[in-house]
Every structure is written in C-alpha cells, then in structure tokens.
Amino acid sequence: ERWPENPEIALRYAKGLTNLSYKQEEIEALQSTVDKLKAIRAQWIEISEIALAYAMGLVNLSVEQEEIEALQSIVAELKALREQWPENPEIALAYAKGLYNLSARQEKVEALQPTIAELKALSEQWFETLEIALWYTEGLVNLSARQEEVEALQSTVAELKAFCGKWPETLEIALRYAKGLVNLSARQEKVEVYQTIDKLKALSEQWTE
C-alpha cells in the first residue's frame, strides 16, 4: 500500500467499498466487501466516518443474509459500532435497519421480542428522528404478524397507535398502525373485530384526500 497512513484516502476507499456493497447481491461477494471495510475500520478505529461506511456495508449484507445466526452476528457488530459512537445518529439508524432486517427473519415471538426491545430503546433515545421511528414501527408490524394472543397484540397495536399520534402527518406510520389493526382483527372474536374495523374506518377517513 502506497499511502497506508493516510486517513483521507482510507475514508475514500471505505466509501467506494460501501457503494460497491449496494450493488452486490451474492452473499459471498458482499461478505468479502464487508470484510475489507472491517479491516479499514480496525486500522482507523477512531474515525466515525469510516465506522459509518462499515456500518452501511453491514446493513447491506444484512438485507441479503437469510441465516439467523449470521444475521445476529451482523447486528452484534452494528451494536458494537453504536456503543462506540452513541451520539452518532447515522450509526444509530444503521443499527435500527439491521435490527429490522433481523426481525423480518425471526419467526418466533420469543426471538422477536428482544429485537423489538432494542428498536424501542433506539426510538426512545432518538425520539425526534423519524427514520428510526419508521424502522421501530415496521418491526412492531412484524411482531404483530407473529403474535397469537389477543392481549399481546393489543399492546403492540397500542404502541403503533401512540406513534401514529406522535407523527400525525406521516402516512407511513399511519399505514403501519393500519397493518397492526388488521393483524389484530385476524385474532379477535366477531364482536371485537367490529371495534377494530371502526378504528380502521376512522383512520381511512383521516387519510381521505
């Protein structure tokens, strides 16, 4: 390497690798790119921009990764980056994306709950950041799709409703609340379903142009 001690060149190399990772779909190729990002980050461990480039590469890998154990390892790496840079909103967002991608692959409620709890903690720390709220509420939708107990589902939907109230002008969150209500209605008895339908009707009328 001709310029092994130059952080600016290392950062550009890292950004180039991140751009490459966006275009890769095969796990082996993506893993190779992320490994290179990891090595750069290890050399320049105190540079947040390089940490972010590595985090974004990890997120891209998590999108394509289907194996739960491998996904958990990716999320653990993202968590370590977040802990090193606790006040960096972009790294927090990358961690949220990784957690969501993990939640999308987790089939059992027991496995999902710790993932959702992590997303909730992020949303509480970054309570004014819409992007993190979006990933948390999408994770809640994943949870509601897997829950079978009505009481647990009602709690999840109540959380979605709270976020709908917090971001009243955000259609994406209203849609997530609607999805949660639909998942709830699938588990309810007939009388309760009517009440849920009324809530969906009210939501529909609110968003009628």
What's the short version?
The chain has helices spanning 7-23, 27-43, 48-64, 68-84, 89-105, 109-125, 130-146, 150-166, 171-185, 190-206. By secondary structure, the chain is mostly helical.
Describe the structure.
Helix content is 80%, strand content 0%. With 209 residues, the protein is an all-alpha fold. The protein is elongated, with a radius of gyration of 20 Å. The mean pLDDT is 95.
Key attributes of the depicted protein:
single chain; 209 residues; mainly alpha; 10 helices
- What letter string, H or E per element, gives the SSE order? HHHHHHHHHH
Report how far the terminal alpha carbons are from each other. 59 Å
Q: Share of helix among residues?
A: over 70%
Strand content: under 5%
Main sheet specs: none
| Gross geometry | elongated
Number of helices: 10
Number of strands: 0
> Mean pLDDT, nearest integer?
95
Radius of gyration: 20 Å
Low-confidence stretches: none
Structure class = mainly alpha
Secondary-structure blueprint:
Blueprint: H1 7-23, H2 27-43, H3 48-64, H4 68-84, H5 89-105, H6 109-125, H7 130-146, H8 150-166, H9 171-185, H10 190-206
Helix pairs in contact: 1-2, 1-3, 2-3, 3-4, 3-5, 4-5, 5-6, 5-7, 6-7, 7-8, 7-9, 8-9, 9-10
